[in-house]
Amino acid sequence: MAWVKVPPEHHPIFHAALPKDPRVETLKMFGGVAAKVNGHLFAGLFGRSTMVLLGEADRAAALALDGATPFDPMGNGRVRSDKVMLPERMMAAPAELRAWVARAFDAAASLPKKEAATPAKRTARRKR
Fold first, then answer.
1. Global pTM?
2. Among 12, 62, 113, 122, which residue's Cβ finds the most Cβ atoms within 10 Å?
3. Domain membership flag for residue 2
């Protein structure tokens, strides 16, 4: 998928779709907004839609939606197997978007808490 700037009007739609849970953290990413729980990224704006992390069954259901694709942030065929790009129409369907983001939150919240990377760990990862 070629990079497309996130429309600014999508930011409030995305924020409204996030679960009202104190564990949700938001951060700027891909020129938009992303959300994490327990250190795991579970949803984020990318291009004109939303990327979500889903469990296997939910991922199959999401990929069956017309216009959904595996998440390929660089557009080079190296997809993220656990993440799905929802169809662009989701940005105009707040209840449906909220339901998919909730599924993503549940999937990420069920994973073991991720240890925060320290500066030393980040440097070690870069050297690999």
1. 0.84
2. 62
3. no
